[in-house]
Each structure stands twice: as C-alpha cells, then as structure tokens.
Amino acid sequence: MATILCYGDSLTWGSVPNGGRYPKHLRWPTILNELLGKHHQVINFGLPGRTTIWNDPFLEGRNGLSYLQAALETFGPVDILIIMLGTNDLKRYFNVGAYEAAKGVEKLIEKSKMPNNHGFPHPRCVVIAPPNILSPTGAMAENFDGAIEKSQHFHHYYQDIAVHNKCLFLNAAGILQPSTIDGVHLDTQANAQLAQAILTLIKDKL
C-alpha cells in the first residue's frame, strides 16, 4: 500500500469555478485514488490560497513551506509527494513570476528530504507545473493582473527544477486548461484529465 500526499492549493482542494467546493468524488485526488485502487491511499491536502513560500498578508497560514514538514509527519510515512503549487504566487501583490514560483517548489522539495524524528524515508516527489491562467474574471481579475503571461512560463522553469532534483514531472498545461468561467479553477473534466495523467506517470513507481 502506498501513501500519496497531494500538496496543493484550491486546484487540489477542489474549488468550483466562481465559488464552492466539488463533492469528494469529483476532486482529482479522489479520482486518482479510485483509479489506483483502494489498496493505495491518496490524501488531499490542498488549501485555497496556498503559495510555495510566500506569506499572504490577507490569508493566514498559506505559506506552503511552513506546513509541509507537519503534513509529512501527520500522514507519514509518505511514499509519493505530489506538489502542484505556484498559481497563487502570481497574485500581483507578491510581485513574482514563474521562475520564483519554481524556486519556491525547489524549497519544498528540499524540505521533503530533511531528516525527521520518525525514521520515515524521503518521499518520491512529483512536480506538477500548474495550468496556464486564462482570462480571470470577477474578483480574481484584479488579484491575477499580469498573471496570464507569467503562467505560460510555468512548464519551463518547473521542468528544470524537477530534472535537477530528480523528481517526476508533469506539465498540466499540456493536458488541460482552467474553466473559462473564472480562468483559474478546474472544471470536472479537467479534474478527471489530471487524475488520469498522474496515474500514467506514477503507476509504475508504486
């Protein structure tokens, strides 16, 4: 039995475009668990607004680096750690781009390899470059001002980080795009597509 920890933001948590949360069976970590079979455990540890390493002045507890070690100990031993973060890093008040987001992911990878008090082995890391941001609508349009172009560079920098750190890599933008309803979050089809792509990537590694 493998334990797979999905460490992400609202795209992992299961945000419905323009508000709400999908029921469990429509979120990609749950779909992945169904595809893998009940003998494996896929844990959804997504949190809306989570960043790689940045402290959000308007949302408490969103710094991904601050909570990763606790998550790995809480759910450990973790066999595979799936990291899909960076979309929220592109909010305009952080004033960073895809390169900095990728470097933030690298800090998370490094954190996952740090010794722990329980003798847990280090998890195998899967780095997922988030999907490109489309034209954000509503309240998100202001938050993600300038983020559309920045997000188009996710795959390049994330792949470099993944290769350098010997991680598995998936470019989400190559298989899906966000809902046109809000330009950021995933519809049900995209959740299913992502789960299937991750299955293909990891099934031989379990």
TrEMBL record:
SGNH hydrolase-type esterase domain sequence ranges: 6-186
Classification via Pfam families: Lipase_GDSL_2 (PF13472)
Keyword Hydrolase applies: yes
Highest taxon above the source species: Bacteria
Alphabetized InterPro entries for the sequence: Ester_Hydrolysis_Enzymes (IPR051532), SGNH_hydro (IPR013830), SGNH_hydro_sf (IPR036514)
Keywords, comma-separated and alphabetical: Hydrolase
Keyword Hydrolase attached: yes
GO molecular function: hydrolase activity, acting on ester bonds
Family matches, as PANTHER family: SGNH HYDROLASE-TYPE ESTERASE DOMAIN-CONTAINING PROTEIN, THIOESTERASE 1/PROTEASE 1/LYSOPHOSPHOLIPASE L1
Protein name (database record): SGNH/GDSL hydrolase family protein
Organism this protein belongs to: Marinomonas arctica
